[in-house]
Amino acid sequence: MRYRKLGNTGLKVSELGFGTIPILSGQVPVLPEYFSPDTDTAVAIMRKAYEFGCNFYDTAIPEEYGDAEYKLGEFVKTVDRNSVIISDKARFYGGGDIYREVLRSIENLGTKPDIYFVHQVDDSNADEVFGRGGALDALYDLKKEGKIGFTGIASHYYTVMYRAATDPRVDIIQGSGNILERGMLDRIRKEAAFRGKGIILNKVYAAGLLIGPFTIAELIGGVLEYPFSCALLGIGTFEQCEMAFSREFDPIHFEFEEVLERLRKGFEPLYKGFETPKKGSGISHKGFEPIGCDRCEKCVCPYGHEIHTSFRQYNYFNLGKEYWAAGKLKMNIEETWQDCRNCDEKSCMTECGRHLYVPGEIERIYELLQAFG
Ligand code: SF4
Ligand code: SF4
Description:
With 373 residues, the chain is of the alpha/beta class. It folds into two domains: 3-245, NADP-dependent oxidoreductase domain (TIM Barrel); 256-372, no CATH class. The protein has 15 helices and ten strands. The strands form two sheets. Strands 3-4-5-6-7-8-9-10 form an eight-stranded parallel barrel, surrounded by four helices. A two-stranded antiparallel ribbon has the order 1-2. Helix 4 (95-109) packs across helix 6 (135-144). It is globular, with a radius of gyration of 21 Å. 47% of the residues are buried. Residues 272-287 have low confidence and may be disordered. The site of one iron/sulfur cluster has 13 residues, from helix 14 and helix 15.
C-alpha cells in the first residue's frame, strides 16, 4: 500500500481507503449494492483491509449508511486507535443540526471522528452550509473544541468544491470521479486553490457500474495519476477486500475515447436484446451509444437543467442499472427536451470540452425513455 499526504493536516493516508456502504445491513436506498454482513464479519473484513495497509475508513450516519457507523466503531476497538483515520458525515446543513449529529456519531463510533464532512452539499444548500451559523461554522467550532480532528465538505458539484477549496475553515474535500467521470478531477488538478486541501475521491467504480467493461486494476490504476489523497473503494466481502488492497496497482492512462469504446461494448448486450423498439419511438441502435460526457460541469443552462446528471444516468442505465437510473432520468426530461428544442442560445455548449451537441443527446435520452415506457 502506498500512502499520500492529506493536504495540510499532517496526516498520511493510504492511497486506497475503505468505503463502508457495502457492509451495511438494512433497507437503505443507496448505491453501490450492500451485502449485509453481520457485525463480526464486517469487522473481520475491515481488519483484513487494515492488515493490507488500509488506514482510512469512511462512513456516514445511520439514516444514510444504515448500521455501518456502528460496525466501524466495533472495528476501531480492535486496532490501535492512532493507526486509523475515521471519516464520518451527515446530510445536515444548519449549524445546530450538524453539531447534534457529530455528538451522536461520537457515541455510535465510540471515538472521535478524525474528519467530519457536511455531506451532499449542492447549490441549493451551499449558502446555508457556508454562511454564518451554518454547518461549516459548527464543524469549525467542534474542531476547536477537540470533538473532531478536521472539517470537511463532500459534494458532487465542482462549484461547491471550489468554494470549499477557497474557504480557510475547510481542511478536506470529498468528491467523485473515475476514468469516465474525470472532468472534475482534471479541473482540480489544474486549479491552485485545491493545493493544501486533502482530497478524498469516491465513486472510483461508478457505484460498481464500471466493473465489467473495466477490471478493478484498470479502474484504480486509471485514477492514480490524479492528485487526490485517498480513493475510497466500497468493500463488502473478503474477496472485494483482497482484490482492492492486497497489491499495489500501476498507474494506467486511458484516453477518453478508449473509455467510450469500452463502454460501447458494455452497452451491446442491452441493445442486442432490444431489437423491437416501441412503435413510433424513432429509436435506433445508435440510441444506445454512450454519451461522451466527462462530467466536468462546465455546462450552465439558463433554464436550470442539470444535463450532466441526465447524461450520467443515461450511461448508468445502459450499464445495467435500469431500475435505478430510469426513475431519475424521467425527472424533468420532457421539460428539458422541450426547452432544448426551443433554445436559441445553447449556452451549455460554449465551454463543453467534449464538444457535445447537447440537444441531440437530450433527444436520445428522451427517445430511450419513450421506448422503454
Ligand atoms: S440547449 Fe439550451 S435548454 Fe438545452 S441544456 Fe443547453 S442551454 Fe439548456
Ligand atoms: S456536457 Fe460537456 S460541459 Fe457538460 S459536464 Fe459533460 S463534458 Fe462537461
